[in-house]
């Protein structure tokens, strides 16, 4: 019997789809994806520990404060080994990004996306540092240390003055250089650069 490549492709497609349907049925019948029989429901205390998002207007910002001088010390102890002492030249091999510089480069052929040039809100800096930094011990910084590091990064980028104390009461009021660089999506998505090309 003469079998063409077109027929072989149809046979493989049929077998693939048949296998997929069988696996899906088997998974549904076996309870896969259902209760796993381990773990415990999250307590309100645990949820509170993880519910740490800070909104662009400052809602959700925890109590605390941080100055430039305190931030310089905290930055050198926790951040400089990856992001570099001057924040514009990260340590090679760490995968860290530059945190300052690049202002005015976003529309160029070589955009330099840093906190100074790209990030639209100071609260985003706080939120990210609080959750993910330092790389070797994410979430280990207390709120005062995070506010201090944010104050230091923003002052070094000439976004705030070195005498500004960053706190819950003013983090939502800090004007970032790229605050208008994202598109507001009225449907509830907030500033999302990806919705510009879609209806």
Describe this structure in words.
The protein has 199 residues and is mainly alpha-helical. The protein has one domain (44-197): Orthogonal Bundle (Cytochrome Bc1 Complex, Chain D, domain 2), CATH 1.10.760. Helix content is 37%, strand content 4%. It has helices spanning 5-30, 44-50, 68-78, 80-83, 122-132, 143-156; strands at 65-66, 166-167, 184-185, 190-191. The longest helix has 26 residues, at 5-30. The model is unreliable at 195-199 (pLDDT under 50).
Overview in brief:
This protein is mainly α.
C-alpha Rg (nearest Å)? 24 Å
**How many domains is the backbone divided into?**
1
CATH-defined topology: Cytochrome Bc1 Complex, Chain D, domain 2
Calculate the terminal CA-CA distance, rounded to whole Å: 52 Å
What is the name of the CATH architecture? Orthogonal Bundle
Q: What is the overall silhouette?
A: extended
Chain-averaged pLDDT: 84
Determine the strand fraction and express it as a percent band.
under 5%
> What's the CATH class label?
Mainly Alpha
- The strand count comes to 4
Secondary-structure element pattern, one letter each: HHEHHHHEEE
Major beta sheet, specifics?
2 strands, antiparallel
Strands in their spatial order, largest beta sheet = 1-2
Number of helical segments with 4 or more residues = 6
**Helical fraction:** 25-40%
CATH homologous superfamily classification? Cytochrome c-like domain
